[in-house]
Amino acid sequence: MAKLNVNGKMLDVEAAGDTPLLWVIREQIGLTGTKYGCGVAQCGACTVHIDGVATRSCSLPLEAVTADQKIVTIEGLSPNGTHPVQQAWIKHDVPQCGFCQSGMIMATAALLQANPKATEADIAAEITNICRCGTYARVKTAILDVVAGGTLGRG
């Protein structure tokens, strides 16, 4: 049994300590917005925030997360899809298939929270998620639109 703080709620979960956090989130908690892509923390489809840091959950064992750490999934980023990054994704028609997009949005939200004036070089260095459809140009455009709008930052 483990206690997790997910999207602001304290939850009891029952899983082996070596179970990847991704599977606890999806199968035990029932939040399926966080996706399984590669299983080796390379593609980023499984990205969640842990204490505000973009973290790839497919290779992070449950036992590495404590009850005092705050986990935020795509479902907890905004209750109604009004987060500035989500709005930019819609405005710029970023997704094609959409599978990787929750991870991309979570990685972007963490980057812009830490660095609201991110440059193209910052984006290239930090947003390393893989998109099978290749929507990278639209991703960059959407991120730069949020930066230009100044709608994110440390608050």
Structure characterization notes:
Strands 2-1-5-3-4 form a 5-stranded mixed β-sheet, sandwiched between helices. Strand 3 and strand 4 form a beta hairpin. The chain is globular and about 45 Å long. Helix 3 packs across helix 6. With 155 residues, the protein is of the alpha+beta class. Helix content is 36%, strand content 14%. It has 6 helices and 5 strands; from the N terminus they run E-E-H-E-E-E-H-H-H-H-H. The longest helix is centred in the C-terminal third of the chain and has 14 residues. It folds into 2 domains: 76 residues, Ubiquitin-like (UB roll); 66 residues, DNA polymerase, domain 1 (Orthogonal Bundle).
Brief summary:
GO terms for molecular function: 2 iron, 2 sulfur cluster binding; metal ion binding; oxidoreductase activity. With 155 residues, the chain is α+β, with helices and mostly antiparallel strands.
Assess the beta-strand content as a share of residues: 5-15%
Calculate the mean pLDDT score and round it.
95
* CATH fold topology of the largest domain: Ubiquitin-like (UB roll)
Question: What overall form do the CA principal axes indicate?
Answer: globular
Per DSSP E runs of 2 or more residues, the count of β-strands stands at: 5
What is the CATH class name of the largest domain? Answer: Alpha Beta
Q: Work out the count of structural domains.
A: 2
InterPro entries: 2Fe-2S-bd (IPR002888), 2Fe-2S-bd_dom_sf (IPR036884), 2Fe-2S_ferredoxin-like_sf (IPR036010), 2Fe-2S_ferredoxin-type (IPR001041), 2Fe2S_fd_BS (IPR006058), Beta-grasp_dom_sf (IPR012675), Diverse_Oxidoreductases (IPR051452)
Organism: Bosea vaviloviae
GO molecular function: 2 iron, 2 sulfur cluster binding; metal ion binding; oxidoreductase activity
Keywords: 2Fe-2S, Iron, Iron-sulfur, Metal-binding, Oxidoreductase
